Amino acid sequence: MKPTRKQEIISRAASLFNERGYSAVSMRDIAKAMDMKAASLYNHISGKQEILSSLILEVAETFTNAMQQITSEEIASVEKIQKIIEVHIDITVSFSENIATLNNDWMHLEGEDLKRVVKMREDYEENFRSIIQQGISEGAIKQNHPEVILFSILSTLRNLYLWNEKRGKMDVNVLKKDMVSVMLKGIV
């Protein structure tokens, strides 16, 4: 199915945001990249804030839905963490420019969209933290501080889009296998 003009605009804007950052991109820049007049953009989109919201909310909702699915499953905590890592990799590979915008420009959201994204992020991290704590309680995860484990895993996963882009986009199955192994078992 051919993307709509609005989807094309959002996609092109995502590339520009990724290259220059949200603040450095104007509607005129987006129009130029689309080979159209700036005024014509407004026939399809209300402004940069709508584009930003679309990019960020799409990926934030994808993460949220995946986490809800995983937390509802009756599986061991380590298996849940493995699935979370794999989902992060899938989402990063599928939505790398959205991830860049989410990581770098979320603070430019306004009003209810900002509140919604912050809430989704807090809930996501709390669910992940709970899974880690459950694994520690069960003896399946070493007695390391849950915040250190959470930070270590999420920092790596949040920056995967940069690393993968720089390295020439590794095979997703290799990423999943090796990243899960390194994150869950370490390197020694």
Describe this structure in words.
Helix 5 (77-94) packs antiparallel against helix 10. 24% of the residues are buried. By secondary structure, this protein is mostly helical. It is built from 10 helices and no strands.
Which tags fit this structure?
mainly alpha; Tetracycline Repressor, domain 2; HTH_TetR; 188 residues; Tet_transcr_reg_TetR-rel_C_sf; elongated; single chain; 10 helices
Q: Mind sketching the topology for me?
A:
Layout (H helix, E strand, L loop, with lengths): L4 H16 L6 H8 L3 H4 L6 H25 L4 H18 L1 H10 L5 H27 L8 H13 L1 H8 L4 H14 L3
Helix pairs in contact: 1-2, 1-4, 1-6, 4-5, 4-6, 4-7, 5-7, 5-10, 7-8
Low-confidence stretches: none
Biggest sheet features: none
Shape: elongated
State the CATH architecture.
Orthogonal Bundle
Rg value: 18 Å
State the domain count: 1
Quote the distance from N terminus to C terminus: 48 Å
CATH topology: Tetracycline Repressor, domain 2
Order of helices and strands: HHHHHHHHHH
Keywords: DNA-binding
GO molecular function: DNA binding
DNA-binding region: 26-45
Domain HTH tetR-type: 3-63
Question: Briefly, what is this?
Answer:
This protein is mostly helical. The protein has ten helices and no strands.
